[in-house]
Amino acid sequence: MDPTTLLAFAAAFLVFAASPGPDNMTIVARTLSHGPGAGIAYGFGMVVGILAFLVLAVTGLAVVAQELGAVMTVLRDAGAAYLVWAGIRLWTAEPVLPAERAGGARPGLAASVLTGIALNLGNPKMPLFYLALLPNVVGATLTPVQVAILASVILAVEAVVIGGHVLLAGRLRRALRTRAAIRRANRVAGGVMVGAGVAVVAAR
After folding, report:
1. Which of the two ends of the chain, N or C, has the fewest CB atoms closer than 10 A to its terminal CB?
2. Cβ–Cβ contacts within 10 Å for residue 81, how many?
3. pTM assigned to the model
4. How far is the C-alpha of 22 from the C-alpha of 26, rounded, in Å?
């Protein structure tokens, strides 16, 4: 795999990863509401789903994944329902000041990871993305070493995209010092999460 091909794949995936959508909105919302750990946890689950589709695509199973429509729909709808539920809870939650957060209960990160996995495994655009990109940009067949290189590129791009969203949202979260400001941020984040859940289901 020559450097030009690798750069073309990285550029195409960067556009795909950085485009505004439910995933990036959810990372921002989770970071605003529960801190950087929650945003990173969701991003981690998202990357697991993306890498799973990479493996399916290079082993020729992406077409099979497309055929498992019912399973993918259940995964996607379950993840979307969780986002809507969590968004409503956040909208109605009492604001918590930064000084009170240290002693309060932290939400489990596992739910964020699992939601990220479910939404990406249930994303109907993911197999189409790989089926269109890999043969035209990378080639029809890949060796295990080339797959590892592509996975490394995906991880690097997602680290930048996820890290950037978490960093910006984290800075905004630290700037919230009053209950009124926190309540407004909670409602914005909750609304974003509900909107992301609805957008996931609508994107059929």
Report:
1. C
2. 15
3. 0.73
4. 6
Question: CB under 8 Å to 139, separation ≥6 — which residues?
Answer: 1, 5
CB environment 112-136: b (16+ within 10 A), e (fewer): bbbbbbbbbbbbeebbebbbebbee
Residues 6+ apart with CB under 8 A from 97: 177, 178, 179, 182
DSSP character at residue 93: S
Question: Whose CA is closest to 118, among 90, 83, 169?
Answer: 83
Q: Dihedral of CA 40/58/124/76: which sign?
A: negative
Give me the tens of pLDDT residue by residue for the chain, a chain 204 residues long.
Answer: 678 878 888 888 888 888 877 888 889 888 888 889 999 999 999 999 888 888 877 776 555 555 655 665 676 677 778 778 888 887 888 776 655 555 454 556 888 898 888 877 766 666 666 666 666 555 556 778 888 888 999 999 999 999 999 999 988 888 777 778 878 888 888 888 788 778 767 765
Please give the structure tokens belonging to residue 127: 């197999």
Q: Which helix (H) or strand (E) holds 11?
A: helix 3-18
